[in-house]
Q: What sequence folds into this?
């Protein structure tokens, strides 16, 4: 490869990566705002300022685009969550850790994922993909929760306690879908963080 | 009114009530199976074996039919839940009470309500109706939970504990949407029923 070729190739890869990222972010925003029925590859391409052809080069099918988008944003959020507590867990932070975990389920990502989830429950083609995706994202979130809460899963009941907490977080996200549930949610988070202190020590 | 008129009128009212009930049950089943996009008054009327005109006599709009359906089935389920524990709460029943509360969110009713909820988040006309409906159903479920758990809401934290439990139940319902989550859910229910014993006494 000549020096000139190499010089041209790197920016091209960068451009490709940037295009992909713009498509993924546009896809999540689109799902959150318009739901599955209103989210097509064309709509997302237009929102991202990318041609339909370029979008299809990155994501051959609609299912590819939207499952990749939810996974990408979930990873971004996991990274951001870990970054909030760079020194790992301290019991004193427990309420903040619970609040941050719950926050994962109250923004546009959860809204987008929920639309995908619900659509997948009626569309076979999407169903398998989303089930796999949710299992992966769910395992990763559980791992982060255990780490940040300083939970010792070797102790009986601890694993189920953390799982129940994440189920509660999902339920709180659902309760926030139609109305701003912030005030009630804050009180529930405070109380459940207190309950966790009793179990996790 | 002649005796003959009266005799004819009563069965007519009964027939009307039975038609209404068939429509409501068909509407919930339809929402659960096909989602909001696939649920129209015509589809429900056909499923219920009722003419489209008769359906529209009972429910002038699609929003009327589906919000009434979710409310009707929610009331049926609340009644059934109270009937499971006719003598009210006993601490010994706590795990069973938690399991029964969680069960409210794992069947076709929750699936139907979820479709309605998600559709309402993108459709303004539906949004107001569903927000009101959810507030009513949510208050009633909270009341039953407090009663069956024997929770004393005058004590600090108890109200938020019960709220968090119902949020967890909703989250467990969501986790059951795409896969059969029964085994995991049973373990979470067992553990959180134990934790509740500590708080509720």
A:
């Amino acid at each position: 490869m000549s020096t000139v070729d190499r010089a041209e190739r790197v920016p091209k890869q960068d451009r490709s990566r940037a295009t992909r990222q713009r498509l993924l972010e546009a896809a999540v925003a689109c799902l959150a705002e318009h739901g599955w029925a209103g989210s097509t590859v064309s709509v997302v391409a237009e929102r991202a300022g990318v041609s339909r052809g370029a979008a299809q080069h990155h994501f051959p099918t609609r299912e590819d685009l939207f499952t990749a988008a939810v996974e990408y944003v979930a990873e971004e959020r996991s990274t951001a969550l870990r970054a909030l507590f760079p020194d790992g867990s301290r019991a004193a932070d427990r309420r903040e850790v619970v609040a941050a975990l719950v926050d994962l389920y109250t923004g546009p990502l959860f809204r987008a994922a929920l639309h995908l989830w619900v659509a997948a429950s009626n569309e076979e083609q999407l169903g398998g993909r989303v089930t796999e995706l949710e299992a992966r994202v769910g395992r990763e979130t559980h791992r982060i929760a255990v780490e940040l809460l300083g939970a010792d899963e070797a102790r009986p009941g601890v694993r189920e306690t953390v799982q129940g907490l994440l189920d509660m977080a999902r339920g709180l996200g659902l309760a926030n879908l139609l109305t701003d549930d912030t005030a009630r949610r804050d009180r529930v988070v405070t109380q459940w963080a207190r309950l966790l202190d009793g179990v996790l020590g």
